[in-house]
Design brief:
Layout: E1 8-14, H1 18-32, E2 35-41, H2 43-51, E3 58-61, H3 65-72, E4 76-91, H4 102-107, E5 113-116, H5 122-132, H6 137-143, E6 145-148, H7 162-168, E7 174-178, H8 179-188, E8 193-196, E9 204-212, H9 217-227, H10 229-237, E10 241-242
Parallel strand pairs: 1-2, 1-3, 5-6, 5-7
Antiparallel strand pairs: 3-9, 4-7, 4-8, 4-9, 4-10
Helix pairs in contact: 1-10, 5-6, 7-8
């Protein structure tokens, strides 16, 4: 921390945090007068941009790995767990699917299964971790189409949720993604199905927050605001699980 002050902060954050942290940033600006310029995208891609020299004061990742890599390189720290998420399936309205047969449907050769891009986007890494738990990991990895979070991923029209758009345009039958993403998709297409996964398959996502080296004092205030009851409440409204306390407390 350089101890200086700033009228504006740069926040780099995972794309799945767009809606929630945009609200948190607006509340922070209203209470402090410090504006927040937010950049949202795949966590792995954002980490690479920071490593390449782009200026970010706070980095909010959809996993703990990417901020810990920055911490290990002495680019910031410490890393704090600030939210949890889980995986769910988003399915087209007419598909015969439920939690009990979710794995059978995912493995069906006729069903087009979408995931995010592993490596670039932690959502894709979590999807691969789920595949590993099924006993059909190789088949699922081979059939899954990486359609979001990568450098060559198609961009939906302005204002359209990517997952809802992929299903509406017939590019995919089901998409394995964060539960919070399925909620946002269904807010645009209410007939979409959200399928909870059996606990035996579930993969939990832990989100990590880091203040970068030489960030101004206000960056630490923003990080604390995200971790505060007010910030955690906003995350909760968007479907995230609070992480200020150990899970189960």
């Amino acid at each position: 921390m350089n101890g200086g002050t700033a009228a504006s902060l740069s926040l780099y954050a995972a794309g799945s945090l767009d809606a929630a942290l945009s609200d948190v940033a607006r509340a922070f600006t209203m209470s402090t007068g410090t504006s927040v310029a937010a950049t949202f995208g795949p966590s792995g891609t954002l980490r690479a941009r920071i490593e390449a020299g782009e200026t970010a004061d706070v980095f909010a990742s959809a996993d703990m790995h990417h901020p810990r890599v920055l911490e290990a390189a002495s680019l910031g720290g410490p890393v704090a767990l600030f939210a949890r998420n889980r995986l769910s399936l988003l399915a087209r309205p007419d598909l015969d699917i439920s939690s009990d047969i979710a794995l059978t449907v995912m493995c069906d050769p006729a069903i087009r299964l979408g995931i995010s891009t592993p490596g670039a986007d932690p959502s894709g890494d979590y999807a691969h971790a789920l595949f590993h738990k099924t006993g059909d990991a190789d088949a699922l990895r081979d059939k899954a189409m990486s359609l979001t979070g990568g450098p060559d991923s198609a961009t939906p029209p302005d204002g359209r949720n990517a997952y809802a758009w992929l299903i509406e345009t017939g590019q995919i039958d089901i998409f394995l993604t964060y539960h919070t993403n399925t909620l946002l998709a269904r807010s645009q297409m209410p007939l979409l199905q959200i399928v909870e996964l059996p606990e035996t398959l579930q993969v939990r996502a832990e989100y990590g927050l880091i203040v970068l080296r030489d960030a101004p004092t206000e960056a630490w205030k923003l990080a604390m605001h995200i971790l505060s009851p007010a910030g955690q409440s906003v995350l909760g409204r968007y479907g995230f699980d609070a992480a200020a306390l150990p899970k189960g407390d």
